[in-house]
Automatic annotation (TrEMBL):
Designated name of the protein: Cobyric acid synthase
Active-site feature positions: C347 (nucleophile), H439
PANTHER family per record: COBYRIC ACID SYNTHASE (PTHR21343:SF1), DETHIOBIOTIN SYNTHETASE (PTHR21343)
Record CDD domains: CobQ_N (cd05389), GATase1_CobQ (cd01750)
Chain ranges of the CobQ/CobB/MinD/ParA nucleotide binding domain: 12-244
Function, as annotated: Catalyzes amidations at positions B, D, E, and G on adenosylcobyrinic A,C-diamide. NH(2) groups are provided by glutamine, and one molecule of ATP is hydrogenolyzed for each amidation.
Domain CobB/CobQ-like glutamine amidotransferase: 268-446
Gene: cobQ
Pfam families linked: CbiA, GATase_3
Pathway where this protein functions: Cofactor biosynthesis; adenosylcobalamin biosynthesis
Keyword Secreted: no
Gene3D superfamilies: 3.40.50.880, P-loop containing nucleotide triphosphate hydrolases
């Protein structure tokens, strides 16, 4: 798959909307390719997400790209997501460039000039990956037909045009209106952009595909482009979703369907859906356990019957603290602590459980009283802590990743994580209340079983963790299923030709084109 200048093949997976399925389709194509012996890498020039990950070299990138790297069976690097935007309050985002934060910026400021200036960096990263890999599968963002942003685009048709990448457009048929979305997306692009749009992929289809085929033929007649796949709807494939902001601000409750418990009881976990919730994927490993039911909550009465309450990470720690108080959740957490019922805080959630927060960086609120459930004082530093630490927790080896500005000073309790010699590394525990800055610790199977055993005992539940649940193996099964969907339900010959040869010539123009 070597083309001009020795570059590997490439493809851009765009979408009719946000959450159309670009991330999982990209991952599925990556897994399909790597099973064919192709050395493949994922790429997303610019990502807006509160779910992020830390690479081995200490760079922060979107979790979706880390998941896609796993699908490709390669180590994630900053090259795969050179620009990451982390939304905050007051219509601003932290700009993370090549894995390091470079400042806060408003949407107007970013789209008014900074974004366009980053196109060179994005293209250099893409070219470096294409020199190293046989193929690079790129993921777009939002819709390529956001005509108000086209001039400064560095993630959709902007890079497709600059790198001459063929484009397939994914549409979520479960939302309805997929034919109009495909046609409208194409018709709003300029002739030069349209020349790269090579086909469509229908995502989340339920029912008899033969009933869809007349519409697909009419779409081909209208646009001159074929539908290259109709992927059936499958539950449980929203792995490492990007949009924690959408989930938390709408006050939604996301529930996991628990399989039968290994012991006599189920274990009920309530996750506080704090504003600007980040890395809520931390609890996915709990939901993978047989008999563990995970739900996201935003009312005090919803935590009353929970066996464990998790306060997750957030990009707005002080704001999350105020939200917990406003909704009565702060009092509910205090009652749980007094009654010896389990509470776990992760990253920002750990910080709010402490005695005070001194923040002149994120919220600039100064000194704010915390919930006082842990003897911890947090000062926000301008430098962000990014790392992939290892340690020991509950007698088991654990590894995780750190992404935080808060520096914790612990004065009491016991450590959540220590080194092999017993020296405290991170976090704090007092009674049934625990907190840690480390994301990903629950993905360590042996530790998770020990932790859930303790939680069940403290909650008075006859819950027993299954002895053989492997979170890593379950993730691999999910990624293989994504690869199966592409292999079995997409025109892989057509995808292969696009990756190797680019968009075919002579694709017709669909009027009216970009205004």
């Amino acid at each position: 798959m070597r083309g001009r200048g020795g570059l590997g093949g490439g493809l851009l997976v765009a979408g009719t909307t946000s959450d159309a399925g670009k991330s999982v389709v990209t991952a599925g194509i990556c897994r399909w390719l790597v099973r064919q012996g192709v050395k493949v890498a994922p790429f997303k020039g610019q990502n807006m997400s509160l779910n992020s990950f830390v690479t081995r070299e200490g760079a922060e990138i979107g979790r979706a790209q880390a998941m896609q790297a796993q699908a490709s069976r390669v180590e994630p690097t900053a090259l795969m997501n050179p620009v990451l935007l982390k939304p905050g309050g007051d219509r601003t985002s932290q700009v993370v460039l090549m894995g390091r934060p470079v400042g806060e910026m408003s949407a107007r400021g970013y789209h008014g000039g900074r974004q366009e200036a980053l196109l060179g960096t994005v293209l250099e990263c893409l070219a470096e990956l294409r020199r190293t890999y046989d193929a690079v599968i790129c993921e777009g963002a939002g819709s390529p037909a956001e005509i108000n942003l086209r001039r400064t685009d560095i993630v959709n048709m902007g890079i497709a045009r600059a790198a001459r990448l063929p484009v397939v457009v994914v549409g979520d048929i479960d939302r309805g209106g997929v034919f109009a979305s495909f046609f409208g997306t194409t018709a709003l692009l300029s002739p030069e952009d349209q020349a790269l749009v090579a086909g469509y992929v229908v995502n989340k289809f339920r029912g008899d595909v033969s009933l869809l085929e007349p519409g697909l033929e009419m779409l081909r007649g209208l646009t001159g482009r074929a539908t290259l796949g109709v992927l059936p709807w499958r539950p449980g494939l929203g792995i490492d979703e990007e949009d924690g902001l959408r989930v938390s601000l709408r006050g939604a409750v996301r529930e996991s369907a628990a399989s039968a418990p290994y012991g006599e009881d189920v274990l009920r976990v309530a996750v506080c859906a704090v504003p600007l919730m980040s890395n809520f994927t931390d609890v996915d490993a709990l939901a993978a356990e047989p008999g563990v039911v995970v739900r996201f909550v935003d009312r005090a009465e919803e935590v009353a019957d929970a066996d464990l309450v998790v306060v997750p990470g957030t990009r707005g720690t002080v704001g999350a603290l105020a939200w917990l108080r406003e909704r009565g959740l702060a009092d509910a957490l205090a009652r749980r602590a007094a009654e010896g019922r389990p509470v776990l805080g992760v990253c920002g959630g750990y910080q709010v459980l402490g005695e005070l927060i001194d923040d002149e960086v994120e919220s600039r609120a100064g000194v704010v009283a915390g919930l006082g459930l842990l003897p911890v004082r947090v000062r926000f530093a301008r430098a962000k802590t990014l790392g992939r630490p290892v340690g020991v927790a509950l007698g088991e080896s654990v590894e995780g990743y750190e992404i935080h500005h808060g520096v914790a000073e612990v004065d009491g309790g016991s450590a959540f994580v220590s080194d092999a010699g017993g020296t405290a590394l991170d976090g704090c525990r007092v009674g049934s209340v625990r907190g840690t800055h480390w994301h990903g610790v629950l993905e360590n199977d042996a530790f998770r079983r020990r932790f859930l055993t303790e939680v069940a005992r403290e909650a008075g539940r006859r819950f027993v963790p299954a002895p053989d649940t492997s979170f890593g193996a379950l993730r691999e099964e999910q990624l293989d299923l994504l690869g199966d969907l592409v292999e079995e339900h997409a025109d892989t010959d057509a995808l292969w030709r696009l990756i190797e040869e680019g968009a075919p010539g002579g694709l017709p123009f669909v009027p009216p084109g970009a205004p």
